[in-house]
């Protein structure tokens, strides 16, 4: 039993060391694989180093029968001091032939879509990001999760 616990702890340390640039990584689930147009997905995180350079991603999980090759999302970010930034992002999920671009197998695919690269957060503090789909459907079927990932930028030439 003691050896099993040691192995689990070593794996946990190993995996966390591989992802040391990760600052925030969170997903929000879509009940019954349906995203309602009026359903905002809210993410809250804290930035402790406003001098660091960051990369941001929108993570999308979809099932294989998602009927579109892309996902348009509206992203609204509330910065400390109540300043708002609004963006529209086209998340390309499949190529022109319909092959899913993300990683996955079976019927579940995950795409890590670049959102903002080499940015600084202007202040230390709490940030709130709201994401809403913009696909002209009241109920968007086939999206299982939406997420945000923030990483400290890596200047070794490899992103």
Write the layout of secondary structure elements.
Layout lengths: L1 H17 L3 E8 L4 E3 L4 E7 L6 E10 L6 E10 L3 E10 L10 E3 L2 E12 L5 E9 L5 E3 L1 E10 L7
Antiparallel strand pairs: 1-11, 2-10, 3-9, 4-8, 4-11, 5-6, 5-9, 7-8
What does this structure look like?
There is one protein chain. This protein is mainly beta. Helices cover 11% and strands 53% of the residues. The protein contains one helix and eleven strands, in the order H-E-E-E-E-E-E-E-E-E-E-E. The protein has one helix spanning 2-18; strands spanning 22-29, 34-36, 41-47, 54-63, 70-79, 83-92, 103-105, 108-119, 125-133, 139-141, 143-152. It has a five-stranded antiparallel beta sheet with strand order 1-11-4-8-7, with no helix packed on it. A four-stranded antiparallel beta sheet has the order 3-9-5-6, with no helix packed on it. The longest helix has 17 residues, at 2-18.
Short description:
This protein is mostly beta strands and 159 residues long. It is built from 1 helix and 11 strands, in the order αβββββββββββ.
Poorly predicted segments: 1-17
Number of DSSP strands?
Answer: 11
> CATH topology, which one?
Jelly Rolls
Mean pLDDT: 88
User: What proportion of the residues is helical, as a percent range?
Assistant: 10-25%
Q: Domains counted in the coordinates: how many?
A: 1
Report the CATH C-level class: Mainly Beta
Q: What's the shape?
A: globular
For the record, the CATH architecture stands as Sandwich
Instruction: Supply the helix-strand structural class.
Output: mainly beta
Our Rg estimate from Cα atoms comes to 17 Å
Strand order of the largest sheet: 1-11-4-8-7
Distance between the termini: 39 Å
Query: What is the beta-strand fraction?
Result: over 45%
